[in-house]
Specification:
alpha/beta; TIM Barrel
């Protein structure tokens, strides 16, 4: 199993320290590679006043330049907002520069204001997303594309260049139709970090079942996203880390209407941020505690869904500090990762 770090480049409220934050991220990526992680990843959103990255491409180039071994990638690049040929070209360049290390996770997008920003109709998000996935795959295969679809018309006179040398296209999903789509396109699936392991197992079983139906099973893999923190004890995690993370989880609980209620009994009756209690919320959802606690949780997840990758966010907009994050990553590399290598 591989281990990755998902960075969250945010500096609320107005991104005054964004330059420093990105230097800290690049330093953290170097450390993650040194201590045994296998990948470093970036997200994407638009019009965020805290500096949340609206484009992954410059960041991926910087990560490629500052590392030599680890995968570089996205979880998630919002594919509907960029022309698929641009995505194929940008992705191929990032892959070539990194010597074949690009893992491009793409998603459908969900927030209405982002669609309005690009003058797009959110009601067409599924068809636009699926058409774009197909076109990126065709472009990366070296095909000369002649295409007239619902959203894109392409009349290429030759293949898109350069071609990637090792890039992978991953397709994110947070629903049964989503995992079916990922399986149909023969793509690895980066999960969300929010739903508990019961929901993840339910969707994983469907994903693999759909892979058998579409004949894509050999191409499929589950890449589990989680939030995590290693310390001396659960009590320390609750004191140092949890207050920073709880607000982040509450934001998504409010904004993402995709909870599987019957498989998330803990979330029933949650009406405000303070209703997220660490003792309950961490179970089957977070990778936290002492090294032994983290190892036991990862083993439980591994038994349930047999993931190929565990991609962890350690630091969010509210913290912890850069220095605390570096120490956590050193400890995770020293005391947790070796149990799975």
């Amino acid at each position: 199993m591989k281990f990755g770090v998902l960075f969250r480049p945010q500096d609320p409220p107005r991104a005054e320290n964004l330059v420093r934050l990105w230097q800290e991220i690049l330093q953290t990526a170097e450390l993650a590679e040194d201590v045994g992680f296998d990948g470093v990843f970036l997200p994407e959103h638009h019009m965020m006043p805290d500096g949340y990255p609206p484009s992954p491409w410059p960041g991926l180039g910087a990560l490629a330049a500052r590392t030599s071994r680890v995968d570089i990638g996205t979880t998630i690049h919002l594919l509907p907002f960029e022309h698929p040929i641009h995505v194929a070209e940008h992705g191929a360049m990032a892959d070539v520069i990194s010597n074949g290390r690009l893992r491009l996770g793409v998603g459908m997008a969900n927030f209405e204001p982002e669609f309005k920003l690009y003058g797009l109709d959110k009601s067409t998000q599924v068809s636009r997303f699926e058409e774009a996935i197909e076109l990126v795959q065709r472009a990366w295969s070296g095909e000369t594309i002649k295409h007239k679809g619902k959203h894109f018309t392409i009349d290429a006179e030759g293949p898109v260049t350069p071609l990637p040398i090792g890039a992978q296209l991953w397709v994110g999903a947070m629903s049964e139709p989503g995992v079916r789509r990922a399986a149909r396109f023969g793509c690895q699936w980066p999960t969300d970090p929010l739903h508990n392991v019961d929901v993840m197992k339910y969707w994983t079983d469907l994903y693999r079942k759909f892979g058998e139906e579409f004949g894509t099973s050999e191409k499929l893999a589950v890449n589990l996203l989680r939030d995590g923190w290693v310390a001396d004890s659960l009590e320390e995690v609750e004191r140092v880390w949890w207050p920073k993370i709880r607000a982040d989880h509450w934001f998504y609980f409010q904004q993402v209407p995709r909870w599987v209620a019957e498989r998330e009994p803990f979330l029933q009756g949650v009406e405000k941020e303070e209703d997220f209690h660490f003792a309950k919320h961490r179970i089957d959802r977070l990778v936290v505690g002492s090294p032994d606690d983290c190892i036991a949780t990862i083993q439980k997840f591994q038994e349930a869904i047999d993931m190929d990758y565990l991609i962890l966010s350690f630091r969010v907009a509210q913290g912890p500090s850069h220095e605390e994050t570096l120490e956590c990553i050193r400890r995770f590399g020293k005391d947790v990762i070796p149990a799975f290598k």
